[in-house]
Amino acid sequence: MMLYLVTSSLCSWFYQADYLRQGEARYSSTRRGLTSILRNQGRRQLYAGLSINYMKAVPSLSIGFTACDVMKSWLHIQTQ
Q1: Fewer Cβ neighbours under 10 Å: the N or C end of the chain?
Q2: Considering the domain boundaries, does residue 79 fall inside one?
Q3: 1 or 40: which carries more pLDDT confidence?
């Protein structure tokens, strides 16, 4: 459960940072971009599309963890 909370928080942060980086450089810094979005579009706009991002991140993380466990078992790597 704790892992899910950490990964979902990280996904939220990376999604917001990625949203600011996409396309043309509209803002000179992350801080100015965030304040401009908050001022002009509201707090809710920072999280637009976040549910779609979760729907793609959860299966991706599941596949990644499974692949990691399979590779550890194939390579006979002991975990603590």
Answers
A1: C
A2: no
A3: 40
Element (H, E) at 46: none
Structure-token pair, residue 20: 């600011």
Residue 33, pLDDT > 70, answer: yes
Buried b (16+ CB within 10 A) or exposed e, 40-68: eeeeeebeeebeebeeebeeeeeeeeeee
State how far the Cα of 80 lies from the Cα of 28, in Å rounded to an integer. 45
Domain, as residue range, for 24: 2-74
Domains identified in the chain, total number: 1
Q: Which amino acid, 37?
A: I
